[in-house]
């Protein structure tokens, strides 16, 4: 099996697992909660306790920039919540939805893309994200996977270069590419004047870090992305993770330090010839388990397994 086929198969399996958990949700019970972060910047969050994948909130957070030039959205949630998300946006502003940018490929952030494309949104994302969607569209289960729907594919893509800037509603929205961190196609979005930074899922304070190696994520990129995020923010920036609570820049430092400490322990155990199962049995996250909200054994094992796989490969 070629490397490209392995990555594609891994991506499909990872998104299928997420899909299975999402199907356990009662979407009828989900409410979309709106919070105003600045004069024309809003955050939409699904209600808590209903999503087996994210107990803190149903699906990923959505950002909205509203005003006379129309609406810019950040992410699109699960497909089943499209009508509710649209209703929440209409309570903010009745203008046209002009742009939708995806922070990464996971379905709780992208499965609603096709719905909002029908509302007139031009979808933007990293080239790697679109490539992943195209691969999914070629899988046997494509017809049942909303992420694989070509109607929701990004039509404007960009790579690892300077931020893409959109000027609208008296604001400057910067799409900042992050190198292979949570996934291979991550983007941070900063609203310069509002000083609000949406960072998707490569940082989270609910559960341990998720390095989605099957979809191009990496430990090295995670650390680089955290450093870039700190450079993109100042002490007063409101930072919005896809899951968890709002933070300030200083909160990133202990998170990065925890990743480095766990990585160092795993690296040492690899040097001793330990297998993955032996590393997991060593409970290297134990010093942090009491303070990581939502830090289940499964979350910790997923994190440590990804670190092990990357370090074992000599990266």
Tell me what you see in this structure.
The protein is of the alpha/beta class and 315 residues long. The chain is 36% helix and 18% strand. It has helices spanning 3-23, 82-92, 107-110, 113-118, 127-137, 219-232, 252-271, 276-281, 286-289, 297-312, and strands spanning 32-36, 41-46, 62-65, 71-74, 97-101, 122-126, 156-158, 164-168, 171-178, 186-191, 196-198, 238-240. A seven-stranded mixed sheet has the order 1-2-3-4-5-6-7. A five-stranded mixed sheet has the order 8-9-10-11-12, with helices on one face. Strand 11, helix 6 (219-232) and strand 12 form a beta-alpha-beta unit. Helix 7 packs across helix 10. The longest helix is centred in the N-terminal third of the chain and has 21 residues, at 3-23. It is globular.
| Strand order of the biggest β-sheet | 1-2-3-4-5-6-7
Q: Helix and strand succession? A: HEEEEHEHHEHEEEEEHEHHHH
β content, as a range? 15-25%
State the low-pLDDT regions, or none. 1-20
